[in-house]
Amino acid sequence: MILPFIQPDWPAPQHVHAFCTTRTGGISSAPYDSFNLANHVDDNPQHVEQNRQILVQSAQLPESPRWLTQHHSTDVINSLDWIEDMPADGLFSSAENHVCVAMTADCLPVLICDRQGLEVAAVHAGWRGLADGIIERAVTQFTSQRHDLLVWLGPAIGPKHFEVGQDVVTAFTNHMPEAETAFTPLSNGQMIADIYLLARQRLKALGIDTVFGGEHCTAGDSEQFFSYRRDNVTGRMASLIWIAPS
User: Could you tell me if residue 198 is inside a domain?
Assistant: First the structure.
């Protein structure tokens, strides 16, 4: 089976492999149709496991992804310390063939590598984790200089659909006043947030300007993507990155 993947358009070394899945190509039934990879959303566990096997086979992964139990934290672990389904929202690796993964359905998947292809990371950045500093925590795992890091922002809820309250605005502006430019007021007193811009602002503050992606909207594209905001009960995509032997 050939799955549809979204691949980063970035100048990563050839031995760094990265892509994001879509919602199609699996066996899950509605509302998880069809390529749900999460086992915490009340989908049939056998369907999830079969979808995960399809992923490994179709993408010719060197191993099963190192799945995490994501909980909107700033916890980032080293792949050498990974235990199956351990609680964390980011996975860093400098080892070959350790497949790092982040699952999302509106939250922002962030993939990072260095220009030499010696270090990689996959991060699940919901607004809480992003505001609390998960990107900053992930970057501290790298020994590479920050100007040598490449970042890809995968499919997330776009700036036309991400309605938030003042608490979200405050969470970001308390850390970085210029984050206010990422919010647009609505007539109902709510705000529309640009999660891609918020991530780029955080990365720029870290000295990282080589940032790619950010062109998709999960909530606005029901054919390609799961969206928790849009559907509430739904599946999850996966964004993966690993270092192949060079």
Answer: no
